[in-house]
Amino acid sequence: MYELNVSKINKRFGTYQALSNVSFTLLPGEILGLIGPNGSGKSTLLECITGLLPVDSGRVYRHDKLLSLNDKKDIVWYQPDNILPFAEQRVAAILLFFRQVHGVGRTDSQQLVDRLELSPVLDKTLNTLSKGYRRRTLLAMALLSRQPLLMLDEPFDGFDLRQSLAVMALLREYRKNRSMILSIHQLSEAEKICDRFLLLDQGQVLGIGNLAELRKQAGLEATATLEEIFLAIT
């Protein structure tokens, strides 16, 4: 059974067709990479799935049930790029609030703080942190949530290679109980973390599948990278 079924999403801004008949499925426990250049419609698609943007047409289903806006609030945690909630609050207070709201145990919360190396900044306010520490705090907030579907926009932006790999390992552990859609512009990072990829350009789905399936679609050899696949398909 599909975790999520997105069917024929269309979205227009005036005369600009931002999304055109976008359809795909998300499997239980899967990490799906949403891949495309700036302006391809990635963020618009995520906002349409969550209900932040109204669609012109199309439907979103979970377990064959059509999702209402209220359903989506209970099912989806969406974290946009470049947000700064609770900017003047200390990191420790933010994480305590999220832990209590979502009923997460103290031990599990502390393990998350340790894995994301947040201890040095717990007493600092979010707006004073570096980009990397802000990202880690936002990721902690997302992982403290209880929604079964995480949608993260550019979750690795601001991390160096070591930090990105550590976060990828952490996300793999958390997918035991949830599915994820990650919008990623760094194709090398997407290739390391995602099970399948949805290639989006100018609001249209150009391909969806794992690396082997996309290589076959693009007519490329078995050693072709995601970047080579994307360039071939587009």
* Helical segment count: 9
Distance between the termini: 31 Å
What integer is the average pLDDT?
A: 94
Note the run of SSEs as H and E. Answer: EEEHEEHEHHHEHEHEEHH
Describe this structure in words.
With 234 residues, the protein is an alpha/beta fold. Helix content is 38%, strand content 26%. The chain has one domain: 3-Layer(aba) Sandwich (Rossmann fold), CATH 3.40.50. The protein has helices at residues 42-50, 69-75, 91-102, 106-115, 131-144, 161-174, 187-193, 211-218, 226-233, and strands at 4-13, 16-26, 31-35, 57-62, 65-66, 76-79, 149-153, 179-184, 196-201, 204-209. The strands form two sheets. Strands 6-7-8-3-9-10 form a six-stranded mixed sheet, with helices on both faces. It has a four-stranded antiparallel sheet with strand order 2-1-4-5, with helices on one face. Helix 3 (91-102) packs parallel to helix 5 (131-144) and helix 8 runs parallel beside helix 9 (226-233). The longest helix is centred in the middle third of the chain and has 14 residues, at 131-144. The protein is globular.
Summarize the structure.
The chain has 234 residues and is α/β, with parallel strands linked by helices. The chain contains nine helices and ten strands. It has a single domain, classed as 3-Layer(aba) Sandwich (Rossmann fold).
